[in-house]
Design brief:
Two copies of one chain form a homodimer.
Chain A lengths: L12 H4 L3 H15 L9 H9 L6 H13 L12 H21 L7 H4 L1 H11 L6 H20 L2 H4 L2 H5 L5 E4 L15 E5 L4 E5 L7 E4 L7 E9 L5 E10 L12 E5 L12 E5 L2 E4 L9 E3 L2 E3 L5 H9 L3 H28 L18 H30 L3 H29 L1 H5 L5 H8 L9 H20 L14 H8 L2 H5 L3 H4 L2 H30 L2 H7 L1 H25 L4 H21 L1 H6 L5 H19 L2 H6 L5 H4 L10 H8 L15
Parallel strand pairs in A: 1-5, 2-5
Antiparallel strand pairs in A: 2-3, 3-9, 4-8, 5-6, 7-8, 10-11
Helix pairs in contact in A: 4-5, 4-7, 5-8, 7-12, 8-12, 12-13, 12-14, 12-16, 13-14, 13-23, 13-24, 13-26, 14-16, 14-17, 14-23, 17-21, 17-23, 18-21, 21-22, 21-23, 21-24, 23-24, 24-26
Amino acid sequence: MTSQISEPYKIGDGYKAMLQFQSTNVNENQQILNDQNSKNKLTLSDKLKNWSIQGFENHNIRDELNRIMSTSEIFKSNELDITKEANRVLVLKQVLEITRGIFEKGLIQITDLRDDPSKILAFIDIVSQFDDPSLMTKLIVNNFLFGAAVFNLGTDRHHKLLPDIQSGRLLGCFAMTELGHGSNVRSLETTATYDPKTDEFIIQTPYRTSTKWWIGNAAHAQIASVFARLIMDDGKDHEVHCFLVPIRKSNGFDLLPGVKIGDVGAKFGLHGVDNGWIQFDKVRIPSSNLLDRFGSVENGVYSSPIKNPSRRFANILAQMITGRITISFGSTRTLKSGIIIATRYACKRLQFGPTSTSPEIPILSYPTHQLAIMPMIASTYAFDAIKIYLGKRFQERTDEAEIHVLASGLKAITSQFTTVSLVELRKLCGGHGYAGYSRLGKILSSIDVGRTFEGDNTLLLQQVAKDLLTQFKKEYSGNKFTGTLKYLGKNTSLLLSGMNPITTMRSDDTHLLSFQFLLDCMEFRSSKLLIQSAQTVSKNYKKTKESFTAWNQSLEILIHLAKAHTETIILQKFIEKVQIEKDLELSSILKKLCQLYGLYIIREDFEFFRNSNYLKKGKAKAIIKLIGQLCSDLSQQAMVLVKGFGNEEYMINSALGMEEGDLYENICKQVGGPFTKDNYIQSKL
Amino acid sequence: MTSQISEPYKIGDGYKAMLQFQSTNVNENQQILNDQNSKNKLTLSDKLKNWSIQGFENHNIRDELNRIMSTSEIFKSNELDITKEANRVLVLKQVLEITRGIFEKGLIQITDLRDDPSKILAFIDIVSQFDDPSLMTKLIVNNFLFGAAVFNLGTDRHHKLLPDIQSGRLLGCFAMTELGHGSNVRSLETTATYDPKTDEFIIQTPYRTSTKWWIGNAAHAQIASVFARLIMDDGKDHEVHCFLVPIRKSNGFDLLPGVKIGDVGAKFGLHGVDNGWIQFDKVRIPSSNLLDRFGSVENGVYSSPIKNPSRRFANILAQMITGRITISFGSTRTLKSGIIIATRYACKRLQFGPTSTSPEIPILSYPTHQLAIMPMIASTYAFDAIKIYLGKRFQERTDEAEIHVLASGLKAITSQFTTVSLVELRKLCGGHGYAGYSRLGKILSSIDVGRTFEGDNTLLLQQVAKDLLTQFKKEYSGNKFTGTLKYLGKNTSLLLSGMNPITTMRSDDTHLLSFQFLLDCMEFRSSKLLIQSAQTVSKNYKKTKESFTAWNQSLEILIHLAKAHTETIILQKFIEKVQIEKDLELSSILKKLCQLYGLYIIREDFEFFRNSNYLKKGKAKAIIKLIGQLCSDLSQQAMVLVKGFGNEEYMINSALGMEEGDLYENICKQVGGPFTKDNYIQSKL
């Protein structure tokens, strides 16, 4: 949309005022000029960018994605008022362009889930910068939910489908959730009943509540990976397994007999994703369509390498990890977009000055603004640190259970933080933040569902807590905590040192800014909450004699424990990364960010730290003051810090978030033109 | 949209499980049956409903609005995927239907702003229940922003326009905000230069940044109330005044010469409001079009009854109070809609049970769910109490400056709480909350702007803080605090009693649940923050010798003070209302809600209460435990409590929020039908 608003007059005096925060950026550009003889010298923002993607740089994949997305016209739509139908067609075109350009060319394969996960992380890292998160979701649904089901749950006979899936020739959908069951997937109702006469399964939707719901790609998929209860001809229910069920006639739109599909309809966001509902009425599939890695039917007999149904189902669900990692990686990229937009706006937007005639000042000058934005910037770098760690573990695939727990906790923390932050960032950008041209509303409403899909956050945090309590029990019987849980082994001594009256009172800057203090706080909290959680569950069990109820009655502390533990790991890994950084300029700024993140997290949970006597009031007040100082200091470098996020400039696509140019000229370029007469005939009374 | 999903099978066993929370409701219905002989006996939810609208019952207005909105087809659209163009046309039709049915019939007049504000409050209270907040916004823009400008800022010669404005024959818009200035309205740039030769003003947009921005009704208005700098022919700038500027040819769409109007475009929400931008190039208006209550030009000479330009402008802005009160009243109604939806869903949605074969339990059974929803319900009743008080004050119009401060604080508190709560409620409803048929996304994205328009919340809270500090200064020079500030006069003795070691330790239920304790906490906090704020500003002034900077450097505590004070008044008024309630059943439940609200607010600011030594750790822990108990207790009556909100059932319009019927049947009635082939031709590769 071209600008309809000209500047026939002169630039407002108010806007001529010095943009103090931009000057940081000017300095950085100046530095580049000064260093032009030493071509290899990187700016601080370049260093930050490189730091944040360690282990999944994969430049060839990034370059090729950037080439496709920056040149192809279908990624350039500035259209904001678009019907969901048109949006879905557009996103499908985008999906196919990327599928062909990346997967068909072999730059990534679905088998890289096992062979080289870093490729997939780099892929997510670029695609999730696009300002319509529908694209990411739809790509993931086909290749890393449907495709991953075929790869992870199937065996050789199914794997031959992978080339067609990843090239987009065979589009699939992942039919797990039902109308009546989302979190409690073990109670899914769809049935797959074995018919020995024909060696087939009959897929059936027995109740309305068993209708498959939210199924992404439902409008375009030719085949579905359907989670259904495997019931043998003797009536025995072997619980939920996954089956490949063709739903449409080959390469066409028409449905196969017995399949009914509809549109779940409008949503809060993700308008470009075709979420549908699917019902099956006596749909027959050959028994070989059972994805049979964890349970198979041969010659009419069911068998499984895992006898315990709970453990078997846990193995089936374990593949969900890709979705969770995608959300952690993807939502922090979206968070970065939001922070970039709000920070650049806050540096360029001037409002109020000392007198009614003096120049106005950038809104980032206000401490309330700094206190809101700077901890978000620090948290984002903390998330980058844990992403680097998680990426490395995902690549190495050692102790997959541990990675699974960490990925679950991180998904819950990052997705909640992203949504809540975007809600705040919208407000910080005022009316302009509410406008479509800011893109904040679009990314907020789309990314928000990250708190729900791939495992509701409250459920995921319970999984983390459950794992911690299980390990705690083992610790009692002599097995030591290992891996990311190792720090919990120190708990007794920690609890004691935490109560040292000198430490709890000490409130000088050197102490409060030390990594040791920050870590001690975090580790003390998790350890104490772990012990208290175990006591609470046990006490409630003694009262109720019923483990389900005892667990539920303990939920508040269990969720608290899971968050505390995940935040501890985030801080640990951030500190580790800062400590090994050799570049002084880089380590110096990362250190400040790490200090701000740590103190911010501690302040967010003063309730715990004060009530457990770990911090005395003087110390707590000193922390508040330090946070204010760090926010003020770091705000001077805000423009460099958000450039250091490394989001591709061409994908920011927000009139408020452009690094270059006049804020208001950028807005006018994206704003709408005259109202059209046709639509407003009603205004004539 | 009719249901596309049939129930060809049987109802899911899982769904047959006992709905324990609904039984509360069943009990209430049972009670009605039992009491059928005493027809006058009200249910508890009826009593709650009547309680919450005291002083602005105005049943004739409510009844007529309900008649119009429940019968007219244009209010029944279930369409969720609608273009902004179509949405705007629909909302305009709705506006005109209400304007004709209510205002033209004389049930309410714009002059009721002065004569009987309760009518306007009743009007807001019904219209804001409609599931598209665009309707409320557009009605307010015409009648209570544009119309109020004419009424409050104009004189007799302008008031003759009021009948045409309120009947919808003359649609207007309120052109205050500019592209470059929203919060700092005193620095608006549009000029109105007096031409003595023709006794006219020339309206001019001097810079791009001076373009009027966000102007609601811009597509439909024939006239604008334009805020512009009044500049006399001697060049003297008399600062911002308001002028009536015709923008369209009579009753038509075409623009008058020199007027340029365009669409601000897509937004996060409020898609039905035609927000536009307007530029003026040498547009001439007769001098009589100046709304001249606070400043006039007669025979070429400017004069004003208020000599001080700051005070004059403050008087002009004082009319904004209607907008702020509308947002407080309107956004709490929207919050109620959201809570009703999430609570009924939480009672009907079952997930997980003690074993994989036992019945599942309603998700409201989970303590984490109760801890999230029940404080929202309690807060809503607290907001109702302060609304009753504010409504009474608004009606009596005594000490308008005090009402203005209270309305500003309340607007900031309620709008922020509403947005943040709706974000949480969406998550609590899981995937179904994300679906359009929940209506949560639509109301969230629309109401969110309430934090920004009619005064950015951070700005409004600063106004509250500024007033408190001004009164504090006066107190020092012998003037006593009056009205809602009276409690601050007790501060010295309070500060002392707060430090009483026995009180700070006492942690028995009787003490913690006593209104006296809750009030003491609140009043101690405001008083202490007031003293600290004064000290902080004064200290910063000594450092900087510059009041603008000194104020800005103190922002964190000033905002804290403003929130604390507003929350104190809310709790005070809630307690007062509960204490005078004679109906035992009603006062008993309100008392619990009031206790929960008070303890919840205290816990939210443990940082302050613990760091100021007002609460010792044992007491803080006892509060946390009590909150859990109150949430659990009150959750048993959740269905009654949300019915007691009194929202009209026909306007809830959410598949999750229906009081009656099967949850999943309700969803299926609203969900979309089959995907259409035309839109998905791209799926054929």
